[in-house]
């Protein structure tokens, strides 16, 4: 165990809103051992920015970690050459060029189809009725698992996310995660002969073409699903909510005074869909006056880093005009999110401008409160909206 001071949290309150506790930690104990999480948390942006690059100390290789145990050994849990080899293998599916050439037009088609199906007279929830299926349909394309239903993509992603954040060891949560990974394995098995016969630019297609071992293919597809579904889903719904509750900023975006990409990047700073990434201490290490012992677990708290007062003025305020260059919402080191360009295209190029262009006078309903939760992964649980029907 590290020599970091102990900092107690109320797990339920931390799930509901981690930011007050994280602000206290940044002030009083920026490197703190939290007994309720069984880990030492790094909460300041500069500590995380430096430490994430020190893979010889803050290792992603965690043989006994929840992700390895439940999902298989994917590239996110590898360092150095092993990580780089798998990252390079998937690049043809998720590079900026691949997103522009292969996926962007199809993303737009899914967005338009889903919006066409929305009924302004119905009780529409933009999480359930747009952000969730849009994210899943796009992810089906990118992964190559077009044989899945979008409902399964979302449910299985959430089950894996819950599983790898199950630090209290709830057996029911683990069982749901195991059922999800079994379903994904079956979907992969169905698609392998199809893509072997007719290769494409999906993740499954390019990994097969690269000769990646089947166990690694399975693990990396599960990694893509675990993050590639919830992050765009949560960022789309969350950014829409943020804009609807800040109408003066919505006007700036709609009138083109602030780019949609800037809007998305500020939301991802303000409420980071991925709030934490775990690491294993590989050798004795000291940061300032805190000594770390090998094999202990450390959480890099991206959600805290992105509200660090040392880099962001009034960090608890959503402000699309701010400089977000110091944000590390997608990571800061060799594990920088490989799907970042796909996420940016889905959200900033397609979802946000399309929703606000096509749904006239989009606004929140007042019959149901918006709910939000999570700290390792954080997002809206619902987004009840209404708008005016347009005359054809």
Description:
This protein has 392 residues and is α+β, with helices and mostly antiparallel strands. The protein is built from 16 helices and twelve strands. It has helices at residues 11-16, 19-28, 45-51, 66-71, 80-94, 96-116, 126-143, 150-164, 171-197, 203-209, 214-228, 230-244, 247-254, 260-270, 302-305, 340-358; strands spanning 31-34, 39-42, 58-59, 124-125, 277-281, 285-287, 290-292, 297-300, 360-364, 372-373, 379-380, 384-388. The chain has a five-stranded mixed beta sheet. α5 packs across α6 (96-116) and α7 runs antiparallel to α11 (214-228). The longest helix has 27 residues, at 171-197. It is globular, with a radius of gyration of 21 Å.
Give the overall average pLDDT.
94
Distance between the termini: 66 Å
Spatial shape: globular
As residue ranges, the low-confidence spans are none
Strand order in the largest sheet: 1-2-8-5-3
Strand content: 5-15%
Task: Give a short overview.
This protein is of the alpha+beta class and 392 residues long.
Topology, element by element:
Elements: H1 11-16, H2 19-28, E1 31-34, E2 39-42, H3 45-51, E3 58-59, H4 66-71, H5 80-94, H6 96-116, E4 124-125, H7 126-143, H8 150-164, H9 171-197, H10 203-209, H11 214-228, H12 230-244, H13 247-254, H14 260-270, E5 277-281, E6 285-287, E7 290-292, E8 297-300, H15 302-305, H16 340-358, E9 360-364, E10 372-373, E11 379-380, E12 384-388
Parallel strand pairs: 2-8
Antiparallel strand pairs: 1-2, 3-5, 4-12, 5-8, 6-7, 9-12, 10-11
Task: Name some characteristics of this structure.
single chain, 392 residues, 5-stranded mixed beta sheet, 3-stranded antiparallel beta sheet, 16 helices, 10% strand
């Amino acid at each position: 165990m590290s020599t970091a001071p102990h900092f107690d949290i109320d797990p339920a309150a931390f799930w509901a809103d981690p930011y007050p506790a994280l602000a206290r930690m940044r002030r009083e104990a920026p490197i703190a051992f939290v007994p309720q999480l069984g880990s030492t948390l790094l909460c300041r942006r500069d500590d995380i920015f430096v430490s994430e690059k020190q893979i010889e100390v803050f290792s992603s290789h965690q043989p006994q970690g929840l992700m390895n145990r439940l999902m298989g050994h994917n590239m996110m849990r590898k360092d150095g050459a092993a990580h780089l080899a798998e990252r390079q293998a998937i690049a043809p599916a998720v590079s900026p060029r691949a997103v522009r050439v292969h996926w962007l037009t199809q993303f737009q088609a899914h967005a338009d189809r889903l919006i066409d199906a929305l009924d302004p007279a119905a009780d529409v929830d933009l999480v359930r009725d747009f952000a969730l299926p849009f994210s899943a349909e796009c992810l089906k394309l990118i992964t190559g698992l077009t044989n899945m239903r979008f409902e399964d993509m979302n449910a299985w992603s959430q089950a894996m996310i819950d599983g790898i954040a199950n630090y209290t060891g709830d057996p029911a949560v683990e069982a749901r995660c195991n059922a999800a990974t079994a379903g994904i394995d079956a979907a992969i098995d169905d698609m392998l002969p199809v893509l072997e016969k007719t290769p494409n630019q999906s993740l499954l297609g390019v990994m097969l073409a690269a000769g990646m071992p089947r166990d690694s293919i399975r693990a990396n597809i599960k990694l893509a699903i675990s993050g590639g579904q919830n992050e765009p889903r949560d960022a789309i719904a969350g950014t829409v909510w943020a804009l609807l509750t800040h109408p003066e900023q919505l006007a700036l975006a709609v009138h083109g005074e602030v780019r949609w990409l800037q809007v998305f990047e500020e939301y991802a700073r303000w409420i980071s869909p991925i709030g934490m990434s775990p690491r294993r201490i590989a050798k004795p290490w000291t940061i300032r006056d805190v000594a770390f012992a090998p094999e202990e677990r450390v959480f890099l708290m991206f959600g805290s880093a992105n509200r660090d007062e040392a880099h962001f003025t009034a960090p608890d305020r959503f402000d699309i005009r701010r400089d977000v260059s110091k944000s590390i919402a997608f990571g800061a080191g060799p594990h920088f999110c490989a799907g970042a360009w796909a996420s940016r295209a889905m959200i900033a190029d397609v979802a946000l401008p399309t929703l606000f262009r096509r749904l006239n006078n989009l606004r929140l309903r007042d019959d149901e409160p918006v709910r939000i939760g999570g700290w390792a992964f954080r997002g809206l649980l619902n987004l009840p909206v209404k708008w005016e029907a347009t005359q054809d």
